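Recall that a protein's primary structure is simply its ordered list of amino acids. Everything else, from secondary elements to tertiary packing, is in principle encoded there. The following example makes that idea concrete.
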Amino acid sequence: MSLKIRLARAGAKKRPYYHIVVADSRSPRDGRFIERLGSYNPMLPAEHDDRVKLHAERITHWLGQGALPTERVARFMGKAGLAPAPATREQPKKSAPRKKAQERAKAAAGA
């Protein structure tokens, strides 16, 4: 059985709230899980203490059992110091402002 530490969505429409759970990788996102390991509330500001709550001792237990965290949960665990932080990927060049927008920004900064 392949175990994952992942997010399970809760909360109302347009008001997301996530539980951090350990579940079989084959079960649906919001379906059956083995244990709840914490919570994530993206509606709170990034510096708020209650944005991410983790039960450290249970997470280390499940990591020892072979559970693999998803990318987002691995970031949370890296910030909390429970696991090494995953490498951040480069932002795509397509998302950078185009030439005219860069010129407008330079003109606005110079003016």
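The domain at 3-94 is CATH 3.30.1320.10 (S16 Ribosomal Protein; Chain: A;). The chain has a mean pLDDT of 92.
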